[in-house]
Design a protein that fits this description.
Elements lengths: L8 H13 L6 H8 L4 H13 L14 H57 L1
Helix pairs in contact: 1-2, 1-3, 1-4
Length: about 120
């Protein structure tokens, strides 16, 4: 018997974003429909974690699958779309983290240079 792939929290979040972007409530059943399955326990845990995360308006970074694609590719298309959203969200999160790290490094450098300026003024 072939084992089904594990559904990640990112896939669950992307499915929830897709559902909410279409104006519907992201229930466990709706998420299972988009993903083609999934444990209620796993979905509940992922959704609880999602609630604790800082969120912006889901419409700013999620998009429902275009109707033409949905009609053409059906459930498989929905699954591919959800995975594409997961990938896009992950890349977005990575980029945000990179920018936050660069900002922290720049702030540290500014503070260090400020200390150096104070020391030089004191020595002058």
């Amino acid at each position: 018997m072939k084992k089904r792939p594990t559904i990640t929290k990112e896939a669950i979040w992307a499915a929830a974003d897709q559902i909410e972007a279409s104006g519907a409530y992201a229930s466990q059943a709706a998420i299972r429909t988009v993903l083609g399955g999934g444990s209620y326990t796993t979905i509940t845990a992922a959704m609880e974690e999602r609630k604790r995360l800082p969120r912006t308006d889901v419409k700013t970074f999620s998009a429902p699958m275009p109707k033409a694609l949905s009609e053409r590719f059906g459930v498989l298309g929905e699954e591919v779309w959800a995975l594409a959203l997961v990938h896009a969200h992950e890349r977005w999160r990575q980029r945000v983290q990179e920018l936050e790290e660069a900002l922290t490094a720049a702030e540290d450098q500014i503070a260090s240079l400020g200390d150096e300026i104070k020391r030089l003024k004191k020595d002058a």
